[in-house]
Amino acid sequence: MFWWMNRKNSKFLLLSLAVLLICAGTISCTEYRAKNHYEKGLTALKIGKNSEAVIEFKNAIQLDPNHADALYQLGVAYLKSGGQNNLQNGYNVFSDLAVKKPARVDAQLKLGEILLLGNDIKAASNKADFVLQKDPKNAEGNLLYARIKVKEKKFNEAKQAYQKVIDLDPNMLPAYNEWTAILVMERDFEKAEALLQQAISANAKVTSTYFALAVFYQIIGKTQEEETQYQKALAIAPKNKIGYFLLARYYARQKNYASAEKAIITAAGIDKKDDEPFLILGDFYLQQNRPNDAEKAYLSAKIADEKSGRGGKKLAVLYLSQFKKKEAASEIESLLLKRKDSDNDPFFLKGRLLLLDKKDTLAIDQF
C-alpha cells in the first residue's frame, strides 16, 4: 500500500485538498477563516461561553471587517456577558453596525433596547419608529414600543401594543409577562391569570411560562396552585435546576423544610460538576442551624468546581465564624494561590483571619 493510501494520511490529504480548493475558489482563505471563527463564536454563545464568543467574533471581524453578522453577534455576546462595561461595548458595536448597515433592523432594535435601559426615551422612540416604519408587523419593534409606553406610564397604550405583539407572535413570552405586571398593578387578577394561561397554551413546553404563573399565584396567595405550576414545569424539564430551586424556596416558605432539602439535593444530582446547587444546599443548612451538613455541602461544591473558588470561600467564611483558624487559614491560602486578578475576596478573608488573630495592623494592609 502506498503511503498516501494509508487511512490517516488520506484524511490529511483530503483536508489539505479541501483547503486548497476553498482558497482557489470563490471564497478566499481569509474569508474561510473568518467564517470558521464566526461559527465557533455562535457555538460558544449557544452554550453560554460568552467570553469565548467575544474572542471568536472579534477574530472574524479582524479578518473580515465587513462581516456584519459577526459584528451583530459580537454586540449580543457583550450584552449577554453582563456588566456596565459590556453594556457600553455592546452599544458601541451596534452603533457601528447601524452606521455601516443602516437597514439592519436587528441592530436598530438592540440600540433602542439599550437606550431605553438608560432612560433615553426619546432616542429609544426614534429607533422604534424607524423599525416600525420599515416593518409595521415587526413583533420586536412593537415590543420595544410597548416598553416605551410603560416607561411613559401610558399603560392603556402599552396594553394595546402588547396585544399587537402577541397577535403577531404568540411565542413572544415577554409580552405576556410584562402585560401581566401591568394587570397585577391594576389589581385585575382575573385577566392577569387568563393572560398567563394563554401564554402556557401558546408555549406549553417552555418552563418559564409555568414559573411566571407560579409567581403570580404566590402574589395573590394561592399557594397550592403555585406548587402545581412548579411541578408541571419540572415534569416537562426534570433536569431544570432553577425549577428545583424555586420549588425549594416555595417549600421553605411553607416551613416544609424536608421537602425543600429534597428539592435542592435533586438539583445537585443533575450535574456533578455544577457547584451552585451544593452552595445553595450549604446556605440552606446554615439557615437550619446545621453547620456540619453545611460544611459537607460546601466541600461538595469545592469538589464539583474548584476553579470557581466559591466552595472554598464559603468554607473559609464558615470556619471563620466557628473560630476554626487553622481550617480557615488553609482555605484562604489556597484561594490566594489560585485567585484571579479581579478577585479580591481572598484578601478580605485574609484580613478577617488576621483580625481574628488580633493582628490589626496586618489586617488593615489586607483590606
Key structural traits:
mainly alpha; 367 residues; disordered N terminus
Give the arrangement of secondary structure elements:
Layout: H1 7-24, H2 29-46, H3 50-63, H4 68-81, H5 84-100, H6 105-117, H7 121-134, H8 139-151, H9 155-168, H10 173-185, H11 189-202, H12 207-220, H13 223-236, H14 241-253, H15 257-268, H16 276-287, H17 291-304, H18 310-321, H19 325-338, H20 345-356, H21 360-366
Apparent shape:
globular
The ordered H/E elements are HHHHHHHHHHHHHHHHHHHHH
Q: Report the average pLDDT across residues.
A: 90
Q: Could you estimate the helical fraction of the residues in percent?
A: over 70%
Continuous helix count: 21
- Uncertain parts: 1-5, 360-364
Rg estimate, integer Å: 26 Å
**Count of distinct strands:** 0
User: Main sheet?
Assistant: none
Distance between the termini: 70 Å
Class by helix and strand content?
Answer: mainly alpha
* Beta-strand proportion: under 5%
Please tell me about this protein's structure.
With 367 residues, the protein is mainly alpha-helical. Helices cover 78% and strands 0% of the residues. α14 (241-253) packs antiparallel against α15, α17 (291-304) runs antiparallel to α18 and α18 runs antiparallel to α19 (325-338). It is built from 21 helices and no strands. Mean pLDDT is 90; it is low at 1-5 and 360-364. The protein has helices at residues 7-24, 29-46, 50-63, 68-81, 84-100, 105-117, 121-134, 139-151, 155-168, 173-185, 189-202, 207-220, 223-236, 241-253, 257-268, 276-287, 291-304, 310-321, 325-338, 345-356, 360-366. The N and C termini lie far apart (70 Å).
